[in-house]
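Researcher: Let's try something more involved. This one mixes different molecule types, so please make sure each is placed in the same coordinate frame as the others.
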Amino acid sequence: GESVGLHLPTLSVQEGDNSIINCAYSNSASDYFIWYKQESGKGPQFIIDIRSNMDKRQGQRVTVLLNKTVKHLSLQIAATQPGDSAVYFCAESYNAGNMLTFGGGTRLMVKP
Amino acid sequence: EADIYQTPRYLVIGTGKKITLECSQTMGHDKMYWYQQDPGMELHLIHYSYGVNSTEKGDLSSESTVSRIRTEHFPLTLESARPSHTSQYLCASSPRSSYNSPLHFGNGTRLTVT
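Model: All components are placed in one shared frame. Result:
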């Protein structure tokens, strides 16, 4: 079936640096994408989403970029903080109301 | 803070026991979901519901069952727990909408079957 995957299982960055977490998806029909953050012992927490009619969307310290040509999604975190340490998941769906498909997570570790 | 609540947070139980994992949400969401997740791994959908008296199986085969008698409540039951059921179970909800919208997750129940 269609799948969503992440390139790097672990990313280690210095506090204050920018972080980039990547995600590849294989379903060209996907039209909705989400990034979730999951801290230890907690459920996934919504960070930001983007629809396929956009290629960039910004939130507070986070930016999601969508490249439909190569089916690639990225999450950029500016001025990474220790509180950003978590596992990050991307998820995708196609057609309104369809189920989200999650990829494997990337663990972000922030060094002080 | 999450408006979706799961109990218990942790459960250790012996093989063969019947268990029910509770999930409640106070947001009035029509759609509710159960996902199974091994540590650090992706989430797998095992059950979902579009509203009262609606339940469907997800992509991942599961021996569990669910019910949806009230909008706010979506319990998951294992009739006879086995070690292979050891995992984290996450409940989520979302509003009924013609557009895709994010899921709101609870903090999960970590189940260990000995």
